Amino acid sequence: MDATKNSEAPQETLNTEIESFFDSAPPLRDGLNISRKLMAFIERNSLSPESERGDRVVCVTSGGTTVPLEQRCVRFIDNFSSGHRGAASTEYFLKSRYSVIFLYRRGTCQPYCRSLPDDPLLECFESTNASNIQVSQSHSEEVKRAISEHHAAVAGGLLLKLPFTTIFEYLQVEHKIQSGSGPLDMRLVQVPKMLSVLRKVWAPMAFCISFKLETDSKILLEKADMALKKYGMHAVVANELLTRKEEVVVVTSSGKISVRRDKTQAGADVEDPLIKLLEERHSAYIEYSMFDPSATSDR
């Protein structure tokens, strides 16, 4: 029996599924322009030999995925994700001198806007006369800080925002699904998991972090351990739905670290100590890789 061949078979099957998935998808809208923006951003912020620390680039995916049931969408399936953690993490990565590619779901939370009301346009501004509006006094500091910090990041070439909305439209019928003839029966097809391909093919030298959200704390760490081993992640951030804003557990091959929000500080985020820990792990990974470029394990 050829053990090597058998161990590679599942990965080969996964690669085939992913290739088929993308082959069946329509072309990416504005794909050429997006590619140009990405290449220019990465080139500008790539590793500089003259820099003692070097320039670091992180890609943060933020927000949930929605699957319309029709191309002209009336009904859709969605998952729980406000994008708050992605937006907060982006802010703290920028604070730690990372350049950030922020891949986000349209309509979700944005960096530097987390402290603003849910409807900022209507709640943060007021009319002074028939032709002028101004920021209301009660929100002036929040709006000023959000605008200045966001402008500094974008103008400085440190933040690239790329929006997305839905899974590929080939999955849906064109017109509204009619319900008058009785109950609807749906057969859902899983989208292939991309993490292992990201880790092994798309970005084999990158430090990869995934997130695991569960509602049952009893299986959370078990699922995080499985994701760590199955997809070859360097770290998995495990969080329970009800306590996700207070505590997370970072699972690595060397152990589990609980990260908690500093409750003694007003307005403190759990993402603050989380990103500091991930930055430390990333630094250790870079240092270890310099001595052993073929290394892929977390140290």
Automatic annotation (TrEMBL):
Pfam family, one: DFP
Gene3D superfamilies referenced in this protein's UniProt entry, alphabetically: CoaB-like
Residue ranges of every copy of the DNA/pantothenate metabolism flavoprotein C-terminal domain listed in the record: 173-253
Any one Gene Ontology BP term: coenzyme A biosynthetic process
Molecular function per GO: catalytic activity
Domain of life: Eukaryota
Family stated for the protein in its record: Belongs to the PPC synthetase family.
Protein name: DNA/pantothenate metabolism flavoprotein C-terminal domain-containing protein
Native species: Nyssa sinensis
